[in-house]
Design goal:
By secondary structure, this protein is mainly beta. Helices cover 4% and strands 41% of the residues. It binds calcium ion.
């Protein structure tokens, strides 16, 4: 009632000047800044409903515990902050509530900052029920944080952060001055929505501290947050300070791990990690001293190496602050890890990381693999870890470990949705209550759906003819399928793709598609394309520099995209000497390029070029490039070129597979600068198997960093040189696995 009265007064007398605590309803930036100057404990600034463009909000003051200073929306969700905007909070007992940041990005290094300036940090302040949706800088390699937390005793709760596409941690807790250490911040009940694969370091969702200040305690509590498909890079959370607590969080199909990168005395308990069988989903990686990991539940995780369900690392003796401190006094007890790919002990052991864990205890854990063998890998001496009463089922360990008993265990799903052993009390407690998506964030802003984007809309029939497809494409909406019949289609305009669209031809008769521009499709922001059952002929395309059937726009594309070709035949891309099928440009990232049951004939350029990031910063253009059951004949340049340079180890990709396909006269044009039929540089996982090659340039594989896995097996070839293999950093023979290949008539290089 008091509140309504105040609003009434404001409405009647323009700006109110209340003697006591007051409410200022402001309608524009001028009114806002006039009111902001006068704020006293207990005052509220209310932003009027509507869109506020290019609004750099600053707020500070001296609130009190009983009378905070409030900045809020008139109605939750109806105040949109867009354009070049951000929010800086200083002072104490400040409360910000109900804003939505979307359709823009911050012109500075942070969207929400818990400091107004370097001198004026926020303390005892709270941000709640705020949405940041896709508020990413346009260039994916221009870095910022969405939230930078400074000061002490701040709280960030019930917020919704989704879709950060540019480099930089989504949420950073900073300890860079005395006023920000031992901070006792609380981060709880937030929805950390999908963060796509960044394709570089700097894609963490949460980081607490940095190596420089990692000897200080942060005392930050991270509780009951939901991490939904946070796939940015190998670290979902990077804890780089001491005495943090991670409790009751839910990790849903998120690639990477919760990593105790620096700092001691971390407690991790009652968290649930559900991988859903998705590649590279991991659990907890342990480094440093006095870490406690208890009563966590992990299921369906498919990560290995540093992203195993549990990774305990080897350290560096007398480690410098930015390397790896030896694990000492770790307690890992009563955790359940089931249907998961790997536990790695003494991970990363090498001549530098030679300090095995000491004085540590692994007890009462229930450990079950996928049944594919060697669930527990041991990479160095484990005598410094005491194993007690652990149970291992449905898999084996690399070596016998006293205190890890093999058992036959029957699992049953309990009412809380988690698996428990029948008649046994091993592993995590039955009291765990897994967090759900509706318990976090806000209820007035939708959380993104789980499924794919293709074929979720209408089916639109398109008759043959000139520009019938061009016109239908222009009106198609997200998820629509354009269904073509038998006959000829001529496209006179490059199709600008900013939605997920399927173009599907007839299965019965031939659907022929000609395009009269240098490209058929140009991928723009938000675009993804699926082509099926089409015969695409490039004969009508003009001679132009950079011809490509599918290309990315010349400006950076923020969102990751998907390109799928199924049952597609492509011919006559030969009007000039470098006409490509798919060409991915700088600052673009494909989650997936998938080619199957397709054929390619008479093409002067490449099939897929994903090699635009040549600066060696560990960046690249495609996460998964998969080719299967397809035929390639008379292709001039290298078929596939995937480039990821540099020494950074923060990504899982790129991945490449080429299987069950035929390659005839490929890569032998004199314009093919690489002289290879496939060029894989810095690819982390490659599988080239069960293919036939005839008259083909050799495959070239260059390993850069990490533990790249390359398998070349079961291939038959005639008149093709053996693969050219190179290791850039690793000392020793090339690590590619070659088996069962027949290189008939091959000349050894
Ligand atoms: Ca990282």
């Amino acid at each position: 009632m008091v509140f309504r009265l105040c609003l009434f007064l404001i409405a009647s007398f323009s700006i109110a000047m209340p003697a006591n605590a007051g409410v200022y309803l402001v309608k524009n930036q001028k009114e806002y800044f006039a009111a902001e100057k006068k704020l006293k404990a207990g005052d509220e600034i209310v932003l009027a409903n509507g869109v506020w463009r290019d609004f750099e909000i600053k707020i500070s003051g001296d609130g009190t515990e009983k009378k905070p200073i409030v900045l809020r929306s008139q109605e939750a969700g109806k105040v949109i902050i867009s354009g070049q905007s951000n929010l800086r909070i200083g002072g104490k007992y400040m409360l910000v509530k109900g804003l939505v940041f979307k359709d823009g990005y911050s012109p500075t290094g942070e969207v929400i900052s818990f400091r107004r300036s370097k001198e004026n940090l926020a303390h005892h302040s709270r941000v709640t029920q705020v949405v940041i949706d896709g508020f990413s800088k346009l260039d994916r390699y221009e870095s910022d944080y969405w939230v930078g937390m400074y000061g002490k005793n701040n709280r960030f709760d019930h917020n919704h952060l989704v879709g950060k596409t540019n480099k930089g941690v989504t949420f950073a807790v900073r300890l860079d001055s005395k006023e920000s250490q031992e901070n006792h911040h609380r981060i709880d009940h937030n929805y950390f929505g999908p963060r796509p694969v960044l394709g570089s370091n700097g894609g963490e969702t949460l980081r607490i501290g940095t190596s420089k200040y990692s000897m200080f305690n942060s005392n930050t509590l991270v509780e009951n947050n939901y991490f939904d498909r946070c796939d940015g890079e190998v670290e979902i959370i990077s804890s780089k300070s001491g005495s943090n607590i991670f409790r009751g969080n839910y990790f849903d199909r998120s690639r990477g791990a919760l990593v105790f990168r620096h700092g001691d005395g971390t407690l991790v308990e009652n968290n649930v990690f559900m991988g859903g069988g998705k590649a590279h989903t991991g659990g907890i990686r342990v480094i440093n001293r006095n870490q406690t990991i208890r009563n966590n539940y992990m299921e369906g995780l498919r990560g290995t190496g540093f992203a195993s369900a549990l990774t305990v690392m080897n350290g560096v003796p007398n480690s410098p602050v930015n390397r790896y401190v030896q694990v000492d006094n770790a307690v890992i007890e009563n955790n359940t890890m089931v249907d998961s790919s790997r536990i790695t002990l003494n991970a990363g052991a090498d001549t530098e990381r030679s300090a095995a864990p000491i004085d540590s205890r692994v007890a009462g854990n229930l450990l079950g693999g996928t049944g594919e063998g060697e669930f527990i890998k041991v990479q160095d001496d484990i005598s410094g870890i005491k194993f007690l009463d652990n149970m291992l089922f449905n898999d084996s360990a690399q070596q016998e470990i006293a205190g890890v008993a093999k058992a036959s265990v029957e699992m049953e799903r309990a009412e809380n949705g988690l698996l428990y052993p029948v008649g046994l009390t091993a592993g995590a407690s039955r009291d765990i209550k897994p967090l759900t998506r509706d318990q976090v964030g806000v209820d007035w802003y939708p959380k993104p759906a789980s499924g794919g984007r293709f074929d979720t809309g209408k089916e639109i029939p398109v008759p043959p003819g000139e520009d019938t497809l061009t016109d239908a494409f222009a009106t198609a909406a997200e998820g629509d399928q354009l269904v073509l019949s038998a006959g000829e289609y001529l496209v006179n305009k490059t199709l600008p793709l900013d939605r997920a669209i399927t173009i599907r031809g007839s299965k019965e008769g031939a659907t022929q598609l000609l395009f009269a521009r240098p490209s058929l499709v140009e991928i723009r922001e938000g675009g993804s394309i699926k082509l099926a059952n089409l015969q695409i002929d490039g004969a009508a395309a003009p001679d132009s520099v950079g011809n490509a059937m599918i290309r990315t726009a010349i400006f950076p594309i923020q969102s990751n995209f998907v390109i799928k070709l199924t049952g597609v035949s492509v011919t006559n891309l030969d009007v000039n000497r470098s006409f490509d099928v798919i060409k991915l440009g700088k600052s673009s990232m494909a989650d997936q390029v998938n080619i199957k049951d397709s054929s390619f004939n008479n093409i002067s350029g490449s099939i897929v070029l994903a090699a635009a990031e040549t600066e060696d910063y560990g960046q690249y253009n495609v996460e998964y490039l998969d080719v299967s059951n397809s035929n390639f004949k008379d292709i001039g340049a290298e078929l596939f070129n995937v480039y990821r340079g540099g020494r950074d180890e923060s990504t899982f990709g790129p991945h490449f597979t080429a299987t069950n396909s035929n390659f005839v006269n490929v890569g032998r044009s004199k314009n093919n600068m690489s002289g290879a039929s496939m060029v894989l540089h810095g690819v982390q996982h490659a599988d080239i198997s069960n293919n036939n090659f005839l008259d083909a340039a050799p495959i070239k594989v260059t390993h850069t960093v990490g533990r790249p896995q390359t398998r070349i097996s079961g291939n038959k070839s005639k008149n093709m040189l053996e693969p050219v293999l190179e290791e850039l950093n690793y000392q020793g023979a090339h690590r590619a696995i070659l088996s069962n290949n027949q290189f008939e008539g091959a000349v050894k290089p």
